[in-house]
Amino acid sequence: HFSPSYFAFILLLASAAYFLGSIAAKHIRSKNLIEKYVDIMLIADIITLSGALLLLINYFTPFYMPRLILITMALFLTRFGFGLMFTPGQMRALEFFPDKSGFALGACFFVMFLSGSFGAAAISAFHKDQMLGLVVVIGSLSLVLMILHYLARKYPYMR
């Protein structure tokens, strides 16, 4: 129930957030502010999960203007988190297979697009309430990634 202008504004902010997340990841890594890519991706997961929580709060907010603000902030955070984890995720995939880096990057993109397709399919299963579907998919994927980060810290040979 957004006007086309406001919807375009939200998409513009989401695109800018993704770009800013990518720049932030590059800056963090180039300044060696965080040693491991896994640490950057954990931060990105927490930011993405906070965006999903804002969407969940929005789900229970009855007023129009607070909903607009919550949705805008949620999409900004989730897209920033995606941008923040995108480059480190690619670099991490390359580290596992240094002699086959082209194949590793291709496989990384394949898994990303496949995951995105499954996520879109899962959201469409909530055809009566896509916002709830978005919360469930983003929240559950973020939680799975955070569990994997925990396991990577607990079992260093997984790194």
Key traits:
83% helix, mainly alpha, globular, 5 helices, 159 residues
Overall description:
This protein has 159 residues and is mostly helical. It is 83% helix and 0% strand. The protein is built from 5 helices and no strands. The chain has helices at residues 4-30, 37-59, 64-96, 101-124, 130-154. The radius of gyration is 17 Å and the shape is globular. The termini are far apart.
- State the low-pLDDT regions, or none: none
Mean pLDDT: 82
Based on secondary structure, the structural category is mainly alpha
Percent of residues in beta strands?
Answer: under 5%
Following the backbone from N to C, one meets helices and strands in this order, namely HHHHH
Radius of gyration: 17 Å
Number of helices: 5
The largest β sheet comes out as:
none
Overall helicity = over 70%
From the spread of the alpha carbons, the general shape counts as globular
Give the termini distance in whole angstroms. 45 Å
Write down how many β-strands occur, each being a DSSP E stretch of 2 or more residues: 0
Give a summary of the structure in a few sentences.
The protein has 159 residues and is mainly α. It contains 5 helices and no strands.
Give the SSE map.
Elements: H1 4-30, H2 37-59, H3 64-96, H4 101-124, H5 130-154
